[in-house]
Amino acid sequence: MSEPVLQVSDLEVHYGLRRKRHQALTGVSLQVGPGEAVGLIGETGSGKSTLARSVLGLVSPSQGRILIDGEDVTGYSQRQWRAFRRRGVVQYVFQDPLRSLDPDLTIQESLLEPLLLRGDSRSSALSLVQEQLARVNLDAELLPRRPAELSGGQRQRVAVARALVVEPRLIILDEPVSALDAANRVQVLQIIKQLRDSGTSLIFISHDLGSVAGVADRVAVLYQGALVEQGATATVLRQPQHAYTQLLLGSVPTLHAAPATRAERQALRSRLEEVPA
């Protein structure tokens, strides 16, 4: 059996001072295999972004282990993390590309930057930039432009291309389509599916269950900082076991049924008060 690209074990994260500590993650364990797409769902404040930031070394866990591509990064210093990030093993795609792309750099400069920092020659870096730009269905004529000169969908595809240029083992996508209109959402989701099919491991963070269903092989559900349910996407979405997952799914209208009634949602919330996270 292939070694997981990401292995998170019993992860706990606390914020704040001793007297006012908030536990953001509680005993979270999660694996992502080679070429696997895992959807991470949960409401705002459930711990999705905290988990992603922990994997990126931006948050220090209070307990637990994080292995990336077989390398234990749990206790890395800032200097070790900086060197690790420059290798491009893990990449992150933000929700808002207009804020994540440097407004003063051209698209070409933004895409070249991680490759030149890694030590690639300029000629080989340019070749990789053009290759990955084509992979996200963008024309090379966009390279001299700046982010403000592109549409929202184009900017998000540039952000995906920037993640791809260093040929990462894992890409974390944080609400990558939530700020896009319907047409651009479809385009970006199609590119994400192609990434999954090409063997890139993905963590897809989203509150949009429809997007998760179309992309993820497995789904993990976070509730109040705890991983309350995970499994094959079809199984979790069709036969949710935890009351919180049922509440999430009950709030989503489908072609065949209306969303759960107010009384039904209240009944599920009452169950949540009785069921430990």
From TrEMBL:
BP term (GO), one: transmembrane transport
SUPFAM superfamilies reported for this sequence: P-loop containing nucleoside triphosphate hydrolases
Pfam families according to UniProt: ABC_tran, oligo_HPY
One annotated GO molecular function: ATP binding
Keywords: ATP-binding, Nucleotide-binding, Transport
All copies of domain ABC transporter, residue ranges: 6-249
InterPro entries registered for this protein in UniProt: AAA+_ATPase, ABC_transp_ATP-bind, ABC_transporter-like_ATP-bd, ABC_transporter-like_CS, Oligopep_ABC_C, P-loop_NTPase
Family annotation (PANTHER family): D,D-DIPEPTIDE TRANSPORT ATP-BINDING PROTEIN DDPF-RELATED (PTHR43776:SF7), TRANSPORT ATP-BINDING PROTEIN (PTHR43776)
Family: Belongs to the ABC transporter superfamily.
Protein name: ATP-binding cassette domain-containing protein
Species of the source: Kineosporia babensis
